[in-house]
Amino acid sequence: MMKHVVAALIVKDGRILICQRTRHQTMPMKWEFPGGKVEAGEQPRDALRRELEEELGIEAEIGEELTSIRHQYSGGGAVELRFYVVRQYGGELQNRIFREVQWTKPSELPRFDFLEADLKLVSDLAVGKIKL
């Protein structure tokens, strides 16, 4: 069964916000872009707005869809990830669920241990193949 997931590339001053999972979450200590699962009957952009409010306490303006990726994990789980650009948001950014959040330049992304499903996007961003 395909799990539908949305994630945000929150961009500010040429940097992207990345988040590290805690040791208690699935795939512990991995880095990811904030977001989460699309619930039944929910539109992807609405799901992302809700997730960003829950995880980071912000009211995000969801921009264009940058790319979508389908990924099959070796353990059997399949995900379809949609990545959206967020250039503006209201409220003060708070780390509500992650071990750590960090602003980083696209070129520095490969230094972090990202989720397997994010690796192609991380690489494309790092080499400038995908521009924000």
Strand proportion: 35-45%
Examine the coordinates and then state which fold CATH places here, giving the name of the CATH topology: Nucleoside Triphosphate Pyrophosphohydrolase
Shape descriptor: globular
Count of runs of 4 or more consecutive helical residues: 2
Number of strands: 7
Largest sheet: 7 strands, mixed
* N/C terminus separation: 31 Å
- What are the segments in which pLDDT stays under 50 over at least 5 consecutive residues? none
**What does the oligomeric state look like here?**
single chain
- Order of helical and strand elements: EEEEHEEEH
Tell me, what is the CATH class?
A: Alpha Beta
Short description:
The protein is α+β, with helices and mostly antiparallel strands and 132 residues long. It has helices at residues 44-56, 119-126, and strands at 2-12, 15-20, 31-32, 35-37, 59-72, 78-90, 100-104.
